[in-house]
Amino acid sequence: MELLKLNNIVQLFPLKNKEVVVLDRVGLSVSKGEFVALVGPSGCGKSTLLRIIAGLVKPSKGDVIFENKKIDGINPNVSIVFQTFGLLPWLDVTENIMLGLEARGLGLKERLRKAFKYIDLVGLEGFEEAYPRELSGGMKQRVGIARALVMEPELLLMDEPFSALDAFTAQNLREEILRLWSSGNLSLKSIIMVTHNIEEAIYLANRVVVLSTHPGRIIGDVPIPLERPRDRNSVEFNKLYDKIYSMVVTTKL
Amino acid sequence: MDKERVKLENLVLELLVLFSLIGFAYIFYRREAVSSSVIANLSVSNLPFYTFRSLLRMGIAYVFSLIFSIAYGFAAATSKRREAVMLPILDIFQSVPVLGFFPAAIFFFVALIPNKVIGIEAASIFLIFTSQVWNMAFGVYESLTTIPKDLKEAYHFFDPDGTLSFVRLYLPATIPKLVYNSIVSWSNGWYFLVACEIFAVGSSSYKLPGIGSFIMETASESKIGLTFLGISVLVVVIVLLDLFVWKPLSQWSRRFRYSMSPGEEEETEVWDVVSLFWEFIGNIFRKFRKPFIGKIGNPISLRSLTRRKWFKVFVYYLNKVLLGAIIIVFIVLIYKFVLAIPLLIKALKFSDILISIKAIFYSFIRLFIAYLISLTWTVPVAVYLFYHQKSAKIISPILQIFASIPAVSLFPLILYYFIRFPHGLDLSAIILILTGMQWYLLFNIYGGLKAIPNDLKEVVDSIGIKKLLKFKRLLLPASLPSLMTGTITAWGGGWNALIIAEYISLNGKTYSVFGVGSLLDKSLTNGNQGLFVVSLFLMVLIIFLINHFVYRPIYNRITEKFNMEG
What is the pLDDT of residues A78-120, one digit of tens each? Predict the structure, then answer.
């Protein structure tokens, strides 16, 4: 079952008097149940692609098809987790999480009920009334994840969600994401994650899509058939790592 | 062959420009010698000369401001003990309406300098200086205290004696803020320039030749056409300065920033004409330096100078002497003040205090109304500009030009049109206060909105927050800190505007409304010094109290809750 389809996405960016091609005829199809990682060197437009999927950025050419419908504007069935968390500093944890529900016109009681459900799910009990500045980076990203999940999206987009965290916290949160993803408690059908960390991509995703830079094109689509929990030191893991690594490196030349 | 010809052509052209510059200066010099230093002739042909005189006044004041602010900021930032004294002083000076002290400055400088005209010139330059300097000194202090620690540590590793630290570390660190604040200071300076080129103290009135006095004088003689001309010349000068000086300078200053924080400043694009102009000037300069290079001998190296032992001893004693001098000046000032207390008490009348408080209350109401009006129009406009980036690119430079017109220069015009209405002066006073307040609010709010980090905007958009909810949850909270900064500067500008807004003579008639501004003017013309001192003192005291006990706590709470470093 296909959830998302990208048709020949082209993104141009005006620079002084010429136009730079950021994304060049990108086509991608994501099925339900897939965890896709977008990997590529910096500046390849993978974050832009994520924003196009969310409807935050309108592509210069091409269509985004979600559940057989063309998407124009913000896609309400999609949520994003941001690299820099994107928490409003003047709202506490609960208020930050409820923000999107308020926009949907839910009553306060309903908003609180849902917010508390996801606060429990991501392990933020006891921090309901804390302000973002009082939280550690890992806690902030938990709020970011809860805020995305509370909207009960079918597709979750993650833009380098762990790259602003230290290595231990990042690994903790990765396990957390896998736990939530495999628990089946969520409305979630698919996840698309942008990362430049190949190991992270292989560890989490069941499909790695490699983008080239200048212009951004899809140059590889590698299925990851490994069983979970995955062993980073296994031969298969390292083979996949080498394969994807050589793809990314060659795009720079 | 061709190259040689181009070279020759360039040389001729450059010489031509140089000679015409010399000629230009000569003509002005002649003019200066011929015409007395008092404005007498309102003909249009005198306008360039007046403009030049005003520019000169501004330039001198600015040079003093620059030297003072670097010295003051450096001294305050490099020692905790000095910081504890110098920072509160800076704070008070920044929030007090300097215009109220103008008569005192005139008395002081006229008494100090035997030549009356030079004394008045000095007083007006001093006033312009006081309007420019505080905000620049604050900028220097702020940029020195925010030098990243790792950079300082790295620097001290390479220059353990710190012989060059001022030139290589501290001075460059101040440049971005200094340039940015200089722009603000210059617009402050224009405001005061217009206000203090023409004034009356007691029975005698002084009119310094300048663009400001030209505007005021033509307006009071109802030559509205000439007034408009004067204002347009002023605007042209301000815009040219912006294009040829401040735009290139702020582009250059960006090199000295440690990091790019988004939205902090607008991208400044320097026109090709401007770059060519400065290149041209640079070429001339180099041509005339060439013959001297190598002939004068190597300039004394600062490094070898500061390494010498006698230099260190000299600096040590210089420091002691300076400190001693400052202490002596303070003691003298305090002694004088103590001596003056009995005289002041004698002159003090209870009725004066009551009148002053009542006047300050009336003025405060006027300011408050102007503030509310400013808020009601600037917030929607700032939000509109924020949402419509394309039209903002056209509109915001136009608004900046409007904002650069010193409000004081508009006052005769505003009064001219509003005086016929009932409560005309009240109305025009409020409008003048408005012109002194609104721009600070507008540009601060707009700046705050533009500084909203992109990820926050994307978050809010991606979860479908729109319109009123977006304003309530994102735009308003994000712009509150800069709104508060805008508010304090707006009120500062407002109090200053007030002092001239409530009392004016037009066509030989004086118009006034009851308020502290008119009270100051009237008490001075009537020679009632007791009332003048009381009302000035009370005004300063009340402004200070409001700042400390109302504004500061609100400001601190808002910046704590709504700052972006979440």
Answer: 999 999 898 998 999 999 999 889 888 889 999 999 999 999 9
Chain B nearest-CA distance from A88, in A, is 7
> Distance of CA B92 to CAs B137, B178, B492, B552, Å?
13, 20, 11, 13
Strands (E), chain A: 2-15, 18-31, 35-39, 61-66, 69-70, 78-81, 155-159, 190-195, 207-211, 218-223
- Positive or negative, the Cα torsion across B151, B155, B160, B166? negative
Q: How confident is the model at residue B462 (pLDDT cuts 50, 70, 90)?
A: confident
Q: For A98, how many CA atoms within 13 A lie in the half-sphere containing its CB? A: 23
Given an 8 Å threshold on Cβ–Cβ distance, is B462 in contact with A78?
yes
Cβ–Cβ < 8 Å for A86, A144:
yes
- What tokens appear for B247 in the block? 């735009």
Q: Do the beta carbons of residue B498 and residue B409 sit within 8 Å?
A: no
Mean pLDDT across B22-31: 56
Looking at every residue in chain B, the average pLDDT score rounds to 80
Q: CA-to-CA distance for A45 and B315, rounded, in angstroms?
A: 58
Q: How far apart are the first and last CA of chain A?
A: 37
Phi and psi dihedrals of A24, rounded to 5? Answer: -120, 110
Of residues B161 and A70, more confidently modeled: A70
φ, ψ of residue B206 to 5 degrees: the values are -115, 140
Residues of A in contact with B455 (CB under 8 A): 82-86
Tokens 């400190």 locate to B323
pLDDT tops 90 at residue B365: yes
* Number of Cβ pairs < 8 A linking chain A and chain B: 70
Write out the two tokens for A233: 């030191």
Which of the pair, B387 or B408, is modelled with greater confidence? B387
Question: Chain A: nearest CA to B564, how far in angstroms?
Answer: 6
Q: Environment class of residue A174 by beta-carbon count within 10 Å: exposed (0-12), middle (13-18) or buried (19+)? A: middle
- Cα–Cα distance measured from residue B113 to residue B120, given in angstroms and rounded to the nearest whole number: 9
The answer to whether B464 contacts A76, with C-beta atoms less than 8 Å apart, is yes
> What is the complex's ipTM, to 2 decimals?
0.84
CB B191 within 8 A of CB B131: yes
CA B208 to chain centre: 20
**Chain B: closest CA distance from residue A91 (Å):** 9
Predicted pLDDT at B48: 86
Decide if B453 and A88 are in contact by the 8 Å CB cutoff: no
- The β-bridge relationship of strands A155-159 and A190-195 is parallel
Report the residue from B453, B462, B562 with minimal CB separation from A80: B462
For B521, counting Cβ atoms within 10 Å of its Cβ (0-12 exposed, 13-18 middle, 19+ buried), the class is buried
Across the interface, whether the CB atoms of A102 and B466 are under 8 A apart is answered no
Number of H helices, E strands in chain A: 7, 10
Contact criterion met (CB < 8 Å) for B561 and A147: no
Is the pLDDT at B479 greater than 60? The verdict is: yes
Q: Do A56 and B566 touch (CB under 8 A)?
A: no
* Contact assessment for residue A22 and residue A181, using Cβ atoms and an 8 Å cutoff: no
Give contacts of A56 with chain B, Cβ < 8 Å: 458, 461-462
